[in-house]
């Protein structure tokens, strides 16, 4: 037990992860083992060319670039994509005035991106997990409609919100007060109203063509809520519904059939029970693969096999991290656990990159020509515990993984006679 | 290991005292039964077992490649190479790893079980800031499906603690992770009780929001000090009674107080402190508080800022039981570093423990320790697998006061053993077989050894 006791002095000399280099006009990453998250699968010894923030070529005949990074055979993946968390909306969970993901009065129009803080200490820390893009979701208020999802790059820059209105979030299922039936009925009512409004608008537009004089009421600008519901009912805007119990999922499948909405289910702890139905209805599912306990009567059949059971039934899955947003960096470990329980490594990587991009309509998540150059070079297997990010790029710009945690470690392992506060 | 006194019924061991020189007749001596809910645990049926060709992490800081482990009658017989035994069931573990059973010092399984319904919220007696009289064992629901899930993760021993709402929340109990339908049938024989204390935000929030004490951290300290003062007086009264009785007098026994019984147990060195405490300055004060009232401050749980006082913890013999990476959910968890465990561990005479406090991560304490191992290696610490296993085995046993009987693969210790399909610090690692007292309690490939809670049985 004594052989590993070592002076803290040596720790101060530990290499720190390099941060930041300026944006090269073009970048070549050579000799990489590329998990492309495409039908190309894994490309050994591959070269990826980035021009102006976009992947412009893979394995070109000749390599010409302003900057060349020799990957030395190491793994290159698409930047991973977090989702269903409150990144940028919460600094400290229990500190009320550092939280902006909830509001009692929030409804479907709640756009929490207006509160997004790119300078949260959670972002540099989360980059340690190779996450380059995130879909933050609001937690809403009393309404079943929790608000709208928005997409950010993990640059920490002021322009890092890259898309709003990417999905509408709805919460159904078990309630501590009242009946879940009321919530489902509420959702059905809203969809029926939206459908009526949509067909009325379609009619009025065609009648307007016939009678250009007709005006006033039908020309009134629809409310923000009506606009969003119109996008929902026409399938332009995905609806992400939290639900776990198998029959709740069956009810939702019926809603998709009836209204033609672009439905995604999140949670789905008993989803494996109805995996075939979900697959047939082409409903993607976002799950936390390490959630396996029966947390309530909606998840009695929860298990570590969920990711594999859903995938093998043909359901497109995305993986997420349960609980506190500060744990988001663990996303790749969750994917690794899904592999330990039956997914292939390629399936698991796709479930934290390409599949998430597909669900939310993002032009990232794959190492493919034309995709945004969100790339991560790993020291070893990206899903295992012994690897770390060696280099990462967001839209072709390199970012580091140094965080406040590293500053604290260095302060308290530095060799000094002075109070630690002088070590900066 | 501090063993509790054998079970004595409350009251009365009469001693005949009629001899000469006796000045007064002594009444029957009043004795407090320290073990009124005794363990009925019996090991499961076990065969003599020889596991061969494994990579063995002993839990004592050693790694032995291509090693064999023989266990019989519930105990480790030998650990070495080229062992043989004609009577033993042989398991060829070529390419696999063998470790001591995982020990979690901080669990709420059974007291905050799955399903987490209101009827099952039995972990926090939030009715007064000092509830040393409550015992977590009285809340344990043995049918919590989490016990089975933890067993599949290699957990063989776990301490069930009350929650952290109170300054002094009550006794914790150490369990064997075997299926049982009474708490007593899971109770670790002769393990000392723990006493849960809590620093910081939780007690002051719970009571402060009711405009009751404590409302501040200074209120927290005042609350502990008042409790320990009363306990000191109580102990003094009982010690005087014992001394007077021993001297042949016929003293009147002090009035029994079940809250103070527990605190006196700490002052007597029989009950070990387990203190939910995140921040450096608070842990430093809790160490002094122990000195003020003559008890040892025990293990600090969560201890997110332990790295700031690693020297103080080592100097005072305090364990710190930590997560690898939880942070940010409240202010006192804001200063996390991923190398916290490694920095604590780097001190001489340290006792770094990785704990779960979670029905989810208790299933993956090997991975939790692995996160620390590899992040610390990245930061320049010279740590290996044989070091990391200590955080979830022998140091955990030390924290619970059971290190003499479990926590490492050494001759004579309990055969609490986990066979892993690979290096246990990989995200892909799975416990294949788990043994408690030499008996197989879990087999990943044999449903016969996969227990199922009553709760989940027959659910459509």
Q: Descriptors for this entry?
A:
heterodimer, A: 424 residues, alpha/beta, Urease, subunit C, domain 1, TIM Barrel, 2 domains, eight-stranded mixed β-sheet, 11 helices, 27% helix, disordered N terminus, B: 460 residues, 10 helices, 24% helix, globular
Topology readout:
The complex is a heterodimer of chains A (424) and B (460).
Chain A: H1 8-12, E1 26-35, E2 42-51, E3 54-58, E4 67-70, E5 75-78, E6 80-85, H2 122-127, E7 131-136, E8 145-153, E9 161-171, H3 180-210, H4 224-233, E10 239-243, H5 246-259, E11 263-267, H6 275-280, E12 285-287, H7 306-313, E13 317-319, H8 331-340, H9 345-350, H10 354-360, E14 375-378, E15 389-394, E16 397-399, H11 404-413
Helix pairs in contact in A: 3-4
Chain B: E1 49-57, E2 63-72, E3 75-80, E4 89-92, E5 97-100, E6 102-107, H1 145-152, E7 155-160, E8 168-176, E9 194-198, H2 201-208, H3 217-246, H4 258-267, E10 272-277, H5 280-292, E11 299-302, H6 310-315, E12 320-322, H7 340-345, E13 352-354, H8 365-378, H9 385-391, H10 394-400, E14 417-420, E15 431-436, E16 439-443
Parallel strand pairs in B: 1-4, 1-5, 6-7, 9-10, 10-11, 11-12, 12-13
Antiparallel strand pairs in B: 1-2, 2-3, 5-14, 7-8, 8-9, 14-15, 15-16
Helix pairs in contact in B: 3-4, 8-9
Q: How is the quaternary structure best described?
A: heterodimer
Q: Could you state the order of secondary-structure elements of chain B as H and E?
A: EEEEEEHEEEHHHEHEHEHEHHHEEE
Total beta strands of chain A: 16
CATH superfamily of the largest domain in chain A: Metal-dependent hydrolases
Radius of gyration of chain B: 23 Å
Please state the overall shape of chain B, judged from the principal axes of the Cα atoms: globular
